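Whiteboard transcription, Tuesday session. T.W. wrote the C-alpha cells on the left side:
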C-alpha cells in the first residue's frame, strides 16, 4: 500500500507518557495488520503532550512488537546529535531487525537556530510571540492548485525568536558546540553506513537502513536529498504553503545514485476519519487548540478532549495562528478523505503519502487509520 503512518506518540489530556507509548505499540501492530507500508516516529523535545523524545529507542520497541512493517524516524534532528551516534543507534536496531529500518533525517535544529538569528525581537509582554502577521491582500485564503489548497506561509521567525525555545536549544547540545553544515553531516552518515569513512561505526557500517531526508521547503534539505540521490519526504501537514516548492526543488536537484535511479517522494498529511462527517468533525475539534500550544512556544500540550476544545474562547489572533493547519487537515468519511489524499498525491506527484492522526481517545485514532486503509485499498 502507498500509505504510511507518522506517529508523535501523543499524550492525551488526563493520560501519561506510559499511556502514549503503549498506544503507539498497539497502533503499530494494528497498522501492520491494516497493510500500511511504514510506521515512522517523530522527534520532539520539551513537549508536555508528546512522548517521542528518543525516536531510536521507540523505533526499537516498535520493531520488536511488529514483524513486517518498516519502522523509522520522521525525523531524527541531526543538529542535536553527531552523524556517528545516529548511525550507531540505527545500526544497532538494524542488526536485530535487518531490512526493516528507515533512517529519516531532518535539519530542524539547525533551521531553528538560523531563524532565531534572523528574527527581530517578537515576543509580547507575556513572553509569547506576537500574533501572526496578516497575509497580504488577496492571500488571505491562499491559492488552490488543481484542487489542493496552498495556504499563505506561516511566519516561523516569530516562533523561533521565543526565548524559551532558545533556552531549550541550549540544553540539546553541549556548551559551545557548533553544528556542522547539514550537507557535511549527511555525507558523514552515508560514509559511515557504506564503510567509506576513515573511522568505522560498529554497529552501523553495512547496515541495511533506508536513508531519507525530510524537508519543509525547496531549501538545503531538498537540495541535499536530490544531489545525493536519496528519497525525500515533504511536509504538507507542517508547512503546507511550501510543499510544492519542496518537491520541485528536490526533483530539480536529483541525481541518480546507488540508492535511487529516479526521484522518490513521500508527502505528509494530517487526517481524521470516522464513519460520518459529524463524528469526524467532533473528533477533530481539539486539533486547533493543540496547534496553538505549539505555535505560542509552549510546546505541544497534552491532547485536549473535544469538551476542552469547546471551552476555549478563540480570539482573532488565535485563529490566525492556526488557520493554515486547520484548513489543510483532511477530516471526514473514509471515502471523502481518501479522495482528498488522492488529490494531494496527484498534485505533488508523491509516490507515497505519510498520514498522521491525533485524537484524544486511542480507540478513535485506531479506527480512523483502519477506515482509511480500507477506503484507500478498496476494501470498504
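and on the right, the sequence the group agreed on:
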Amino acid at each position: 500500500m502507498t500509505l504510511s503512518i507518522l506517529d508523535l506518540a501523543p499524550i492525551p489530556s488526563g493520560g501519561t507518557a506510559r499511556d502514549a507509548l503503549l498506544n503507539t505499540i498497539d497502533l503499530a501492530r494494528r497498522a501492520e495488520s491494516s497493510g500500511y507500508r511504514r510506521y515512522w516516529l517523530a522527534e520532539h523535545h520539551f513537549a508536555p503532550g508528546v512522548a517521542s523524545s528518543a525516536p531510536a529507542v521507540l523505533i526499537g520497541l516498535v520493531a520488536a512488537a511488529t514483524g513486517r512493517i518498516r519502522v523509522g524516524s520522521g525525523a531524527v534532528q541531526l543538529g542535536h546529535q553527531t552523524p556517528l551516534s545516529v548511525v550507531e543507534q540505527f545500526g544497532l536496531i538494524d542488526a536485530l531487525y535487518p531490512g526493516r529500518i528507515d533512517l529519516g533525517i531532518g535539519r530542524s535544529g539547525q533551521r531553528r537556530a538560523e531563524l532565531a538569528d534572523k528574527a527581530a525581537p517578537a515576543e509580547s509582554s507575556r513572553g509569547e510571540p506576537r500574533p501572526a502577521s496578516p497575509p497580504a491582500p488577496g492571500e488571505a485564503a491562499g491559492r488552490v492548485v488543481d484542487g489542493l489548497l496552498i495556504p499563505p506561509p506561516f511566519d516561523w521567525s516569530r516562533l523561533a525568536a521565543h526565548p524559551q525555545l532558545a533556552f531549550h536549544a541550549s540544553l540539546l547540545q553541549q556548551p559551545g558546540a557548533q553544528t556542522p553544515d547539514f550537507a557535511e553531516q549527511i555525507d558523514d552518515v552515508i560514509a559511515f553506513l557504506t564503510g567509506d569513512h576513515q573511522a568505522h561505526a560498529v554497529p552501523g557500517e553495512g547496515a541495511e537502513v533506508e536513508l531519507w531526508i525530510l524537508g519543509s521547503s525547496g531549501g538545503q534539505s531538498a537540495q541535499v536529498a536530490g544531489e545525493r540521490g536519496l528519497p525525500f519526504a515533504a511536509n504538507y501537514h507542517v508547512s503546507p504553503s511550501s510543499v510544492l516548492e519542496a518537491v520541485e526543488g528536490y526533483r530539480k536537484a536529483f541525481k541518480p545514485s546507488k540508492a535511487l535511479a529516479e526521484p522518490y517522494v513521500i508527502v505528509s498529511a494530517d487526517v481524521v476519519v470516522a464513519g460520518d462527517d459529524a463524528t469526524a468533525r467532533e473528533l477533530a475539534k481539539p486539533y486547533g487548540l493543540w496547534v496553538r500550544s505549539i505555535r505560542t512556544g509552549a510546546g505541544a500540550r497534552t491532547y485536549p478532549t473535544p469538551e476542552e476544545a469547546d471551552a476555549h474562547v478563540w480570539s482573532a489572533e488565535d485563529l490566525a495562528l492556526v488557520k493554515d493547519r486547520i484548513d489543510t487537515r483532511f477530516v471526514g468519511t473514509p471515502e471523502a478523505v481518501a479522495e482528498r489524499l488522492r488529490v494531494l498525491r496527484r498534485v505533488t506527484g508523491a509516490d507515497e503519502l505519510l498520514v498522521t492522526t491525533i485524537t484524544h481517545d486511542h480507540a478513535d485514532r485506531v479506527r480512523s487509520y483502519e477506515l482509511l486503509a480500507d477506503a484507500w485499498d478498496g476494501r470498504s
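Someone added at the bottom: DSSP finds 15 helices and twelve strands in the chain.
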